[in-house]
Amino acid sequence: MESAQTSAAGVARKVSEYMLRHDRASGHLGITIESVDEGHAVLAMTVRNDMLNGLDILHGGVTFTLADSAFAFACNSRNRKTVALNCTVSFVAAAREGDVLTATAREVSLSGRTGIYDVSVRNQKDELIAEFRGTSYGTSSPVI
Amino acid sequence: MESAQTSAAGVARKVSEYMLRHDRASGHLGITIESVDEGHAVLAMTVRNDMLNGLDILHGGVTFTLADSAFAFACNSRNRKTVALNCTVSFVAAAREGDVLTATAREVSLSGRTGIYDVSVRNQKDELIAEFRGTSYGTSSPVI
Amino acid sequence: MESAQTSAAGVARKVSEYMLRHDRASGHLGITIESVDEGHAVLAMTVRNDMLNGLDILHGGVTFTLADSAFAFACNSRNRKTVALNCTVSFVAAAREGDVLTATAREVSLSGRTGIYDVSVRNQKDELIAEFRGTSYGTSSPVI
Amino acid sequence: MESAQTSAAGVARKVSEYMLRHDRASGHLGITIESVDEGHAVLAMTVRNDMLNGLDILHGGVTFTLADSAFAFACNSRNRKTVALNCTVSFVAAAREGDVLTATAREVSLSGRTGIYDVSVRNQKDELIAEFRGTSYGTSSPVI
To answer: How far apart are CA C111 and CA C138, in angstroms?
Structure first.
């Protein structure tokens, strides 16, 4: 019988928890893991005052960091150390203090060493805040 | 006689200083303005331990935030409030604790409301860390 | 009672047929309209020998042109003349002579003048060939 | 003494001429090689009536194809077979029938298997028409 520890979803969870625990940069953003599985990750984050830019809206760099973390957890979910080659992000609507954002990453393709992942960032009203696409490159090492 | 306050470079400096002062998200990154002018901006940042990810290298979200700030200062430099439509970033090499990064933004084109800005992020050895391209959209409001 | 000519889908079809008829560049590619509606378009194209590159696979420029046309029909579907600001395309797998490609465009967001459209290009086995994302900018003129 | 056939520039020229000769898709566009060297390529093309879209301006797919060819010649210039992972293109100004376009590709970075190439497409007045960025992935095979 397959236990949660050895199933695909169990591996994905262990890897993402390891990555989040060791990630000092995103740690102070209060990001939490809602769910994670092979090629998928859903993260949540509440917008705080110290995340705002000079226009009193969420800084694009913080939006990017949230989406990038979801991308990282999705593309490392098989415990193969995988890095970002490039990313694009489209900013659709502003997020404001108190908003609860959800970043949902899904694997669009994975062939050989390279993969494509789309991440949608939405607020508590399910309004689209940003749309992110990352291209990944898999190394030969495990994450943990 | 044109004073520093009213020259193009003077306006660019006043706007960027205003933006940096009110930007809580990038404020804690210790970003400094090296130079700024119409359509241009050069920023610097030292990589600290609390900016690293689980692999002990600079988090891509922090690299993005530095480049995005240089982009913002360059595209707002004429005191026209301008927002990012979308951005792409290519990660070329890893940055490590203690590295001093410089983000240099230049205006590739500006026609009507939309502009293109390229930002190169380099370390203290002039090695390319990341290459960023942002597309901007100008509103009808001033920044300050 | 609303007729096909005045319904949203009817407008979308009339605009896309007009655009395809006047488009000399994509005309010789044998592109056909499978379906079109507000914010959506599905096109088909058969890969011919004269579309191949030096490696005997479909030229990326032809793949792009097919996806770009689907994007154009989707973002002009409300009869508002709309142009491309920028596009990204990821090449996932090679297409070969005789393959029948389908490009499916969907509207990810439309707010104010700017929109985001994703286009998937798949072959007759439903394998992903390329993934395209276009950012549009709406003018104040009608298409027809 | 190094001959033109064995120098870096000579290899680049032989590879690009081979690629152009075997490329049926871009062959009919009348693209010519202005210059080519390690990591660089300059191509030219005159805009013909059969390259126009329904708005009587150059089709974005043709602009992309020209830039993509310059990218391909630059990234294959060392005779290592190299493919495109993804590309972005920003459309800056319209090109019209009779315009003579020049696509200039330069290597922004090359590390390991992946490279970044920027291609500027300009008209006979040196006005920017489009700005293209391609990410390449090198295989283990030679081109010729």
So the answer is: 10
